[in-house]
Design goal:
The protein has 6 helices and 6 strands; from the N terminus they run αββαααββββαα. The protein is mostly helical. The protein folds into 3 domains: 67 residues, no CATH class; 54 residues, His-Me finger endonuclease fold; 30 residues. It is elongated, with a radius of gyration of 29 Å.
C-alpha cells in the first residue's frame, strides 16, 4: 500500500488513507478520511453487529432492496442473461398466457410474473405466471410438443365425456 497522509488523501478526493502506523487495536490498515476509523476495525465491528443483530440486518436489507428494487431486478436479469423487457410489467398482474393473477404462492408469499424470453434469439416475449413459464420451459418452446400435449388432453377429455354420457344412459 502506498503511504499517504489524511490531508493529501482528502485533497485528492480519496475516501481512505494509509500511514503505515497501527491503530490502537494493532491493525496496520487503511483509515477512513472522514472519521479516522481503521478500516479493519470497522469491518470487525460490522461483522459483530450483524452477528448480534440478525433481525435488524434483515430489516435493513429489506428496506434497501425495496428502495432500489428496479436496480436489483435489472442487475439480476443481466446476471441471468435475460433480456430487457420491451413492454412494461402488467399493472393488473395477469399472465399473458392463461390470464391468472400471479397464481403461484410459495411459503404464503405471492410471486410475481416471470419474464419470458426465447432461448434461441434471446428476445423478450412477455410476462408469464410461474406455472405457464414452467410448462413452456418443460415443453422446450416446441410447437410440436405443445400440439401433441393438446391432442393428448383433448383425447382424454373426449373419452371422459363419452364415459359420462354412457354412464348416464338408461338401458
Amino acid at each position: 500500500m502506498e503511504l499517504i497522509s489524511r490531508e493529501d488523501a482528502k485533497n485528492k478526493g480519496l475516501k481512505r488513507f494509509f500511514t503505515g502506523e497501527p491503530c490502537p487495536h494493532g491493525h496496520t490498515d487503511e483509515h477512513y478520511v472522514g472519521n479516522w476509523n481503521c478500516c479493519q476495525c470497522t469491518r470487525d465491528y460490522s461483522k459483530e453487529y450483524v452477528k448480534n443483530n440478525p433481525e435488524k440486518r434483515k430489516e435493513s436489507n429489506a428496506r434497501h432492496f425495496e428502495k432500489h428494487k428496479e436496480y436489483h431486478t435489472a442487475r439480476s436479469r443481466k446476471y441471468q442473461g435475460l433480456p430487457e423487457a420491451t413492454r412494461e410489467y402488467p399493472m393488473d398482474g395477469l399472465c399473458e398466457s392463461c390470464g391468472n393473477n400471479n397464481g403461484f404462492k410459495k411459503n404464503g408469499t405471492q410471486k410475481s410474473l416471470c419474464l419470458d424470453h426465447c432461448h434461441t434469439t434471446g428476445e423478450f416475449r412477455g410476462w408469464l405466471c410461474y406455472g405457464c413459464n414452467g410448462a413452456e420451459g418443460n415443453l422446450k418452446s416446441s410447437c410440436r410438443n405443445i400440439m401433441k400435449l393438446h391432442e393428448y388432453l383433448m383425447k382424454f377429455k373426449c373419452e371422459q365425456l363419452l364415459k359420462n354420457q354412457i354412464a348416464g344412459m338408461v338401458f
